[in-house]
């Protein structure tokens, strides 16, 4: 099968969509299929080392210096070349210019069109349009999604949760759950002992690692909240001795450093100290920390929100 993919993003733009496209292309090639990818040009980017990528002239996106908008005329100009390639399927990867041009190409080439729904827009779109109420942006995201998905022959989703969310929206086209796989051989050369040694982590100390971009849609705040719950279940993870806690806080403020469980000194600037109220003895801990700071000559001020 010859598959024509089209996306608003691809390497050197690093994100989950780029990685997913690359992973699926490699898997499809290994299975004996062909893929052609239409993607934007990026100024100053090195020549592609992957085969069959058609780069389209692009322009900048306002307030988004990392992304590029493909020029519509340049995509349309590819049609004679694509007709000669005779693709069996158009696979759209992103819901912006690629969606509308991809569906148009599929109609012109008289082939089926599918799309991968990579991102749960409802949960993060309001971060990028903060002037509108969150409820309004959720409604817009849902209507936008339904209008796009229901013109497709089929939709690829990464999980059952995503499938159910789209069904709740009113998406009616057939859906298939195909998670993006991991190329485990890329991690085969990892050296856990060296990693621990470089960061001063003891051999038996559990380590939780998140690999990803810092962006709203990555839900990193959820990871922080869950980590606070998980870490408390490990013996020794939470301090209870008031004097030890107070001494650490004073050092943190005076020296600009904290000491990890391995003894490693980590430099950091401290502006505020927060004591969680659900910790047993939180009131007594707060009093002890406050007194220790005052005894050390450190001013304690109420936290104010403007």
Fold and architecture overview:
- This protein is an alpha/beta fold.
- It has 2 domains: 2-184, Rossmann fold; 191-295, no CATH class.
- 39% of the residues lie in helices and 16% in strands.
- The protein is built from 11 helices and 11 strands.
- Helix 10 (242-255) crosses helix 11 (282-295).
- The longest helix has 16 residues, at 134-149.
- The protein is elongated and about 80 Å long.
- The model has no long low-confidence stretch (mean pLDDT 89).
Tell me the strand order in the biggest sheet.
3-2-1-6-7-8-9
Low-confidence spans: none
CATH architecture of the largest domain: 3-Layer(aba) Sandwich
Task: Output the CATH homologous superfamily of the largest domain.
Answer: Glycogen Phosphorylase B
Outline: elongated
Count of strand segments: 11
Radius of gyration: 26 Å
Helix content: 25-40%
Biggest sheet statistics: 7 strands, parallel
Question: SSE order, as H and E?
Answer: EHEEEEHHEHEHHEHEHHHEEH
What is the SS-derived class? alpha/beta
Count of domain modules = 2
Q: How much is the average pLDDT? A: 89
Beta-strand content bin: 15-25%
CATH top-level class of the largest domain:
Alpha Beta
Summed up, what is this model?
With 306 residues, this protein is an alpha/beta fold.
List the helices and strands and how they pair.
Elements: E1 2-6, H1 16-30, E2 34-40, E3 53-56, E4 58-61, E5 64-70, H2 72-76, H3 79-85, E6 89-92, H4 97-109, E7 113-116, H5 125-128, H6 134-149, E8 154-157, H7 160-169, E9 175-177, H8 192-199, H9 220-232, H10 242-255, E10 257-259, E11 265-267, H11 282-295
Parallel strand pairs: 1-2, 1-6, 2-3, 6-7, 7-8, 8-9
Antiparallel strand pairs: 4-5, 10-11
Helix pairs in contact: 10-11
């Amino acid at each position: 099968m010859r598959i024509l993919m089209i996306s608003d993003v691809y390497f050197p733009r690093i994100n989950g969509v780029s990685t997913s496209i690359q992973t699926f292309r490699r898997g499809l090639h290994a299975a004996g299929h062909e893929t052609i990818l239409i993607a934007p040009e990026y100024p100053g980017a090195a020549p592609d080392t992957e085969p069959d990528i058609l780069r389209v002239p692009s322009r900048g996106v306002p307030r988004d210096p990392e992304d590029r908008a493909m020029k519509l005329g340049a995509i349309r100009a590819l049609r004679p070349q694509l007709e000669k390639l005779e693709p069996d399927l158009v696979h759209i990867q992103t819901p912006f210019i690629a969606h509308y041009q991809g569906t148009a190409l599929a109609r012109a080439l008289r082939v089926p069109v599918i799309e991968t729904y990579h991102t749960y827009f409802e949960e993060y779109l309001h971060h990028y349009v903060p002037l509108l109420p969150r409820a309004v942006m959720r409604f817009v995201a849902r209507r936008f999604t339904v209008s796009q998905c229901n013109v497709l022959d089929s939709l690829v989703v990464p999980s059952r949760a995503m499938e159910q969310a789209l069904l709740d929206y009113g998406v009616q086209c057939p859906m298939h759950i195909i998670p993006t796989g991991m190329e485990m051989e890329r991690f085969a050369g990892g050296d856990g002992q060296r990693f621990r040694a470089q960061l001063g982590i003891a051999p038996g100390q559990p380590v939780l690692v998140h690999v990803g971009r810092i962006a709203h849609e990555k839900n990193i705040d959820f990871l922080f909240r869950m980590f606070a719950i998980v870490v408390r279940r490990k013996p020794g993870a939470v301090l209870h001795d008031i004097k030890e806690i107070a001494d650490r806080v004073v050092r943190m403020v005076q020296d600009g450093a904290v000491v990890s469980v391995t003894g490693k000194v980590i430099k950091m600037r401290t502006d505020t100290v927060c004591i969680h109220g659900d910790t047993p003895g939180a009131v007594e801990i707060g009093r002890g920390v406050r007194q220790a700071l005052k005894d050390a000559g450190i001013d304690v001020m109420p936290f104010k929100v403007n």
